[in-house]
Amino acid sequence: MKILLVEDEKELRDTVKTFLMKEKFVVECAEDYPTAVSKINDYDYDCILLDIMLPGGSGLSVLAKLKKLRKQDSVIIISAKNSIEDKVEGLELGADDYLAKPFHLAELNARIKSLLRRKKAGGDTSIILGNLTLYPDTRKVTIEDKELELNRKEFDLLYYFVSNPNRLINRTALAESVWGDHIDQADSLDFIYSQVKNLRKKMKTAGSQAEIKSVYGLGYKLTIETT
Amino acid sequence: MKLLRYTHFNISLSLFVLLSIWGGLFYYTVINEVMDETDDALANYRDIIVGKALADSTLLNATDNIIHSYSFRRLTTDEAADYKTRFYDSTMYLETEDEFEPVRVMKSCFLASDMNYYELELRLSTLERDDLIQRILYYLIALYAVLLCCVLFSTRLILQTIFRPIHLLLEWLESLTLGQPAPYLDKNPRIREFRTLNRAAIEMHERVEQTYEEQKQFIENASHELQTPLAIIRGKLELLSDNENLTESELETIDDIYNSVNRAVKLNKSLLLLSRIQNAQYSECSDVNLNMHTKEILTFLPDLYEDKQLRYTLNEAGECQANMNEHLAHILLNNLIKNAFVHTPEQGQIDINITSNSVEIVNDGTEALDENEMYKRFYKGKTLHNGSTGLGLPIVKSICELYHFKLQYRYDGRHHFVLNVVKE
Questions:
Q1: Tens digits of per-residue pLDDT, A101-137?
Q2: Do A186 and B228 touch (CB under 8 A)?
Q3: Rounded to 5 degrees, what are φ and ψ at B184?
Q4: Section A63-74 average pLDDT
Q5: Which residues contact B110 (CB under 8 A, 6 or more apart)?
Q6: Measured between CB atoms, which of B238, B270, B303 is closest to A106?
Q7: What is the domain class of B286-420 according to CATH?
Q8: Which pTM does this prediction carry?
Q9: What is the CATH number of domain B192-278?
């Protein structure tokens, strides 16, 4: 899987690159507008992460060029501006997703994977982890072909875990992925414990091979038992 | 009282008094002159009649009643000694008309040719004179009224013209809203003082606007510029925490840093949101169903505070529709409801009442909030609430101001926040 990361800030570029390489992606970088344009001209990517404010031009015009070339690359806009207009304009130009800085890397990972799955499978977007299968489109989860009853929040939590298996997920990132805007930093995140506890119990009862483990102090990790 | 009415009232009052005095004086001078005229005429007649009587003593026994009647009377020497000529008004019976007529009487004495003192009583009809006086009075009153009216009317017109620039300036000042272009104001009124005033006002407004703009820009730029470093810190921490070889205490430290970064991120987002609302960057409007948003918020928020074992009810007496930006509607309700959840003591009660044009949020609380302080940025209240941004209510207030919604607060043992979405 080849990803083009268009971002002018070196530190952020390196961080995201390191992270994505751990996920076994092939990552190429472009730090300004001309580089980005020449790269999309010369190569095809599975996914392009596109910053809007670039030296030498706007990320939106990179996107416009890409669409003009009739390329099928998926595009996620990552912008510091986080304004509705940008988001709308980007999506209208044909971007697949929009992520505002500063984002959680796990969130970025989940979005990229979701895009790639949709593109690759030609309809089949399910994620399989051991005996657990999750269908994002129909919001269903099965374990050993038996459906697991989950409420909306439990499904969202599990979806996030499943998108980031074997990775330590911070409580804050997890809470924000489901409760989003409703949380601010003043809130104690203790409620996450009971939410995850319920989910874990349901999975265990159904005999799931994937298991959510607590990591002291920080959050959780989804691991798959290989028997 | 309006300046125009006040000035006009004062001018009118002084004119009224002055004109009245002037009218009175004028009337009495004229009347005196007329009276004098009659008396002068009487004196003239006396001279003529006395002259005739001296020449022809038979006249002393005659009387005339035609134009001016007169009669003679012989005086004793005692009477004649301290005789004084007198004028007075009287009436006289006229047989021809069969009525009493006003007359002016002159009594004087003279020494006739027979060396006797005679008193001559001259009577002159004052019918015409009284008529004249009456006319003078009428005309004077009419003149007075017309003059007063004209003066009052014209001063009012003139004052109105003079005060027009002031009114325009006042209207202009009242119509000013920070962050919005100022309406037109004439920079060159004819009168110098007004010109100075207008120019000073315009200049002042421009300065305030510029400061406001710069401050807004600063907040927005600062928030923007902070996003990238925050993203880097957060990303690096995430990468770091993925490391398998970390000890528990290292993980704990990372978590602390992570939480602090998140706090900065939230604060930054709130500031940016606030400045965007005040910049009116959320221009897209639609009819938003507040009931729906409230219900949606209530599916998420209570999770966050399950420790506090709060009870909450939602009473929908009507569908509340508001014409506003959907995103802002969500933030508005979320902040208000969240506020209630955060500040209600444990095991407290929260009631949300929605009617067709208002949303009321009632929650338990021990003490009334300070209304002057609570909408200020970074106001944290008296209770220690660790890590609160202090931007929740300012954001609520900005949204309400943007859409001219009325937000009322009262305390009667419980906090009541009433959001009225009917535009003022």
A1: 888 888 899 899 888 888 776 667 788 888 888 888 8
A2: no
A3: -70, 135
A4: 87
A5: B50, B53, B54, B117, B118, B120
A6: B238
A7: alpha beta
A8: 0.64
A9: 1.10.287
pLDDT tens across B298-357, in order?
988 888 888 888 899 999 998 998 888 888 899 899 889 988 888 888 888 999 999 988
Q: How far off is chain B from A54, nearest CA to CA, in Å?
A: 13
3-class secondary structure, B277: helix
Q: Write the pLDDT tens digit of every residue in B78-136.
A: 877 788 888 888 888 777 777 888 888 888 888 887 788 888 888 888 887 888 888 88
A97 and A45: one domain?
yes
> Is residue B226's pLDDT more than 80?
yes
Window 240-279 of B, Cβ < 8 Å to A: 241-242, 248, 251-252, 254-255, 258-259, 262-263, 265-267, 269-270, 272, 276
- Residue ranges making up the domain that contains A68: 2-120
CATH number at residue A166: 1.10.10.10
Domain final position from A58, A87, A120 = A120
Dihedral, CA of residue B141, residue B146, residue B148 and residue B149, to nearest 10: 140
Residues of B in contact with A223 (CB under 8 A): none
Percent of chain B with pLDDT over 90: 13
Beta-carbon contacts of B92 under 8 Å, excluding residues fewer than 6 positions away, are B69, B100, B101, B103, B123, B125
- Where is B408: in which H helix or E strand? strand B406-411
